[in-house]
Amino acid sequence: MIQVAGYTIDLNDRMTQGAILGAALIVLIVILLIMAVRAAGRSARNVDLVALQVGRLNADVQTLGQGQQQLTGNLQTVSETQTNAQLHVIQTVETRLADVQLQMNERLAENARRAALALGEMQDRMKESLHGNSERTTQSLTQLQERLATIDKAQTNIEKLSGDVLSLQDILSNKQTRGAFGEIQLNDIVSKALPPDAYVFQATLSNGRRADCLIHLPNPPGPIVIDAKFPLEAYEALVAADTKEQAARALAGLRQAVLVHIAAIADRYLIEGETADGALMFLPSEAVYAELHARLPDVVRKGFDARVWIVSPTTCMATLNTMRAILKDARMREQAGEIRKALRQLHRDVEMIGERAGKLETHLRQANDDVSGILVASERAGKRADRLDNFDFEELAPDAEAPRVVPLRQSDS
């Protein structure tokens, strides 16, 4: 491609190639003319031939001029076509750019709208979250104040409980008050587990000894005694021991004290023919009970051998529930005759209810039959009343001997 005076010449075009060839021929002819003129003086014989060739050359030059004019028109046509194509391309590109710009504007507007909507929703959520956090913070502070008040109240109760524990220590430091404390706890447990007529507190036996609690069980095993005293000093010495030697001496002292107490219970409260062949030693402390079973199992076994069973508040409640079942079974055996008599009366009452139910069924069936008969008679009476209502007296014959009588009730026949 060659740009010449604003025109584009394609060397591959045949017309362009022809024009170039013509121009070359013209140049060649000019050169030949120059050579011929120079050679005119040498050879006059070639003048006619040169003239003929010049004539032909003029014709060729005219032909070449016509071809050049056609080439110029073709170049103008190509230029116009290219200009139109460029204009069309420019217009198409401008149209597409306008469409793309419009679409971009729409998308930007949509994105801006979505961003504004998302920002509004985020603001709403942040407001709700802040409001919820504020409410939760307020609620947490309120709960914290309530818990602080509860803690203050619990601290007050702990201080009061500390005073109660100190007073309890004062009580347990005295043998008489300690015995009274054990009796009170035993009284509370027994009164909750057994009926009032099944036990007696501070009962005097035939040997003059006074039992803390006597439970009236049927024979066998018979009335059983519960002793509420316990050797606390030896256990306190065991708890307060700092060295192994002190702990060993305190443990030996606790063993001896419990064995002495077991022997005293067996000697005082096991009376043949009056009480059961066993008694209960009540320990109002689960810790002492656990210590005996964990570190002094031989003492527990010796208590079994002496028919003295060591119980704590928990095991005492279980034992009393078993005694309650025994009392209930004994009373049921005592009342077996009354129960049989009541069952016979109940059976007779059931039979009477069955007989009366049969009679009531008969009466109900008769009443049902009577009601059915009444309904049938009522239906018949209604039909006859309808016939009387529609009866035409003018259709009767004048010489009728007797009026027609329509019975209101059908005879049984």
Describe what this molecule looks like in 3D.
This protein is of the alpha/beta class and 413 residues long. It folds into 2 domains: 2-131; 175-334, 3-Layer(aba) Sandwich (Trna Endonuclease, Chain: A, domain 1). The protein is 73% helix and 7% strand. The chain has 9 helices and 7 strands; from the N terminus they run ββαααβββααβααβαα. The chain has helices at residues 14-38, 47-172, 175-193, 232-240, 244-269, 286-295, 297-305, 313-334, 336-389; strands at 2-4, 7-9, 199-204, 210-215, 224-227, 279-282, 308-311. The strands form 2 sheets. The chain has a 5-stranded mixed β-sheet. The protein has a two-stranded antiparallel sheet with strand order 1-2. The chain is elongated, with a radius of gyration of 68 Å. The termini are far apart.
What class would the helix/strand composition place it in?
A: alpha/beta
Strand line-up of the largest beta sheet:
3-4-5-6-7
Could you tell me the strand content as a percent range?
5-15%
Calculate the mean pLDDT score and round it. 77
- The CATH architecture of the largest domain can be given as 3-Layer(aba) Sandwich
Distance between the termini: 140 Å
Q: What portion of residues is helical?
A: over 70%
Largest sheet descriptor: 5 strands, mixed
The low-pLDDT segments are none
CATH top-level class of the largest domain: Alpha Beta
Question: How many discrete structural domains?
Answer: 2
Oligomer: single chain
Shape: elongated
Number of strands: 7
Radius of gyration: 68 Å
